[in-house]
Request: fold
Amino acid sequence: MNIVVCIKQVPGSSKVDIDEATGVLRRDGAEAKMNPYDLYALETAVRIREQVGGRVVAVTMGPGQAEEMMKEAYMMGVDDAYIFSDRKFAGADVLATAYTISQGILAIGDFDLIVCGKQTTDGDTAQVGPAIAEYLKIPHTAWVGGIPQVTEDKIVVEQDLVNITQTAEMKLPCLITVEKDIYTPRLPSYKLKMATKERPVHILTFDDFKDKNEKNYGLNGSATNVERIFPPAVSDDHVYFEGDSTEKIQALYGMLADKKYVNV
Reply:
């Protein structure tokens, strides 16, 4: 079985640089990590391969620095890795991102199953996975919390729908997005690190895609525009109160009352 797992680099801290002109994050050179939800998708893909055989290919869209994340994916058991990277892809919203990834998957070749994390911690839309499936014209199921059966031609999944669990069966090829409780992600393996240290991470650009219409990618292909985005104000001001505990409580209460946070 050919399994594709979609992963993404997200900011590694709350200190992010924002391009105020375009309203997008500046990812080049920024501290980054693998999206936590994608760890569960990666674990799911590897476990399915261990059960039915085949290969797992990790894909991502982003700058060249994503290679470090893909090396980490090798250490967690994936067989191959691709980065879709081009300036024409920059500034993409949910639709343009999903379209770019769908075109990248088609450029790689045959696939049977695509596994995505539920959402990303930077966008939180939970829409990219289903949108990829729509562009590829394949069935999809979201909020998957369990996989009771998988064979060479179908997969049975359990959807967590708040108050109920729904069982769905889909023929392959298809796409699923998984919840964080589906499996416990494995740690990167030092043995796999040494075994895969020379394994390349492939870079696909706009020129490798079949669709050469630039209006379908990046800012040009985005249906939505961010009017304004800005980092939260950071203040390190401190207020110290002197005296015993009673005096400190009275001083704190007086300050809160002055600011009308409490009723006097």
